[in-house]
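The following record pairs a protein chain with its ligand, heme C.
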Amino acid sequence: MNTRLLHWLFAISVALFISGIGFIVVGARAAQQAAPVETPAAPPIEPVATVKQLMDGIVQPSALVVFDSVGTIVDATGIHEKQPTTDAEWAAVAASAAAIVEAANLLNTGNRAVDRGEWVKMSRAMADAALQVLKATNEKSAEGVLAAGEPLNASCDACHQQYQRE
Ligand code: HEC
C-alpha cells in the first residue's frame, strides 16, 4: 500500500468519523427540540361550593331560564306561544343548558358525590337532559326545548326525593 492511498484512507475515515459525530450532535439536538416543552403542572382544583350552593348558584337559575324560555301563556288577550326569537335569546338558553351540564360534572367533583351509584346516575340524567336542551337550542327548536324540559325537571325531582333532606 503506498502512502498516498494510506493518506486517502486516513482522510476518508477521519471524514466519516467527523460526520458520524455530526449526525449524533444533530440527532441529539433534534431529540432535544422534539422533547415536550415543560408544561406547568395543572393548578390543583379545590372544590369550594357546597351542593346547596351549586343548586342555588348555578342549577336553579339556569333551570329557570330553560323552563321559562318556552311555553304557553294564557291571558285576557288570548293564548300566546312563548319562545326565544333572537339569536341572543337562543344563546342565553344554550348557555344555561351548558351550565347545567357543567354543574352535573361539579356534583361529582371533590367530595360532593354522596355515593358512586345513584348519585352519579341521577346527575348524569340531569346532564343528559340539559344536553338535549342544548341540542334543541342549536336547532332553534322550541318544541325540542319543551320536550327536553320534561326529563330535565324529572331529573331534579328524582334526586331531591332521594337525597334532599328537609
Ligand atoms: C344529583 C342530585 C341532584 C340533582 C340532579 C339536582 N339536585 Fe337540587 N339538590 C340536591 C341536593 C342534595 C340538595 C340539598 C342540598 C342541601 O340542602 O345541602 C338540593 C337542593 C336544591 C335546591 C334548594 C337549595 C337550598 O337553598 O336549599 C334547589 C333550588 C335545587 N336543588 C334545584 C335543583 C334543580 C332545578 C335541579 C334540576 C335542574 C336539581 N336541583 C337537580 C341534589 C340534586
